[in-house]
């Protein structure tokens, strides 16, 4: 049996498990990894490769980094490989119809939600922020309209109260890697038929901005904690105290029997167990945060170097 010929497209760390899994699957031949050009990173603005480029080089896979993919040069480079499939995971570029028509069988996308829910750039954060009970990954046949293609397979996972965007990212990334193998084998064995999405149920989530990290203490304690989790690791949840910004990394709904009529955002108690902050409904127990020191600290360590005179108010 001939090898299944695959062109992989992806850029960030989320894409890497799928690339590695495809590369080691018997009978699969990853011909090329297409990723974005090296970008300046860090304080020194040194050009750095994408996570996919680094992984592909480690695997001995050829890398192609066009600034624009929908060009005659790009189309010629990829079409000349005669791929059976594209596998696209967080590539970060819109593919033209001419590019999508290149694979002999399908261009397949791995998307980190249960489509048609959360089409767009931030589905992982949206699932945490909205306190969904479950989310998952979807493989679909790519269409010109973003995330609107026919569904191939789905896999679900619970969203736990302690999940952050970071922990859910890692879980969904590996789930997507496993699902793409099942998807391609299912297509080859003629066990999978693409199913159109119900476009009337579609919802969209935009790319996050730094300003999205600001905490609104007027919400319930549960929603404030969900917001903090959704913004971790980026853009980071933040609030202000006496005109200085504080980043909050970890918080839970206080289980202590604590009632307060204080305004939302009021720090009502401080101890080595946390900073207890009034929300619109309930109390948030802040466990890890960072002030002007630039170090992530637990509450006890933070309070050693940062005295808070009560009552104080975040906002």
In short:
The chain has about 325 residues and is of the alpha/beta class. It has helices at about 15-25, 50-60, 70-80, 95-100, 125-130, 165-190, 220-230, 300-305; strands at about 5-10, 30-35, 40, 45-50, 65, 85-90, 105-110, 120, 135-140, 150-160, 205, 235-240, 245-255, 265-270, 275-280, 285-290, 295-300, 310-315.
Can you describe what's shown?
The chain starts with a strand and ends with a strand. It has helices spanning 16-24, 51-59, 72-79, 97-100, 123-129, 165-188, 221-230, 299-305, and strands spanning 4-10, 28-34, 39-41, 46-48, 63-64, 85-89, 106-111, 119-120, 134-141, 151-158, 204-205, 237-241, 244-253, 266-271, 274-278, 283-290, 297-298, 312-313. The strands form 4 sheets. It has a 7-stranded mixed sheet. With 315 residues, the protein is an alpha/beta fold. β1, α1 (16-24) and β2 form a beta-alpha-beta unit.
* Shape, per Cα inertia axes: elongated
Structural class call reads: alpha/beta
Number of helices: 8
* Order of strands, widest sheet: 5-2-1-6-7-9-10
Strand elements, count: 18
Mean pLDDT metric: 96
Provide the β-strand percentage band: 25-35%
- The multimeric state of the shown protein is single chain
**Helix proportion of residues, in percent?**
10-25%
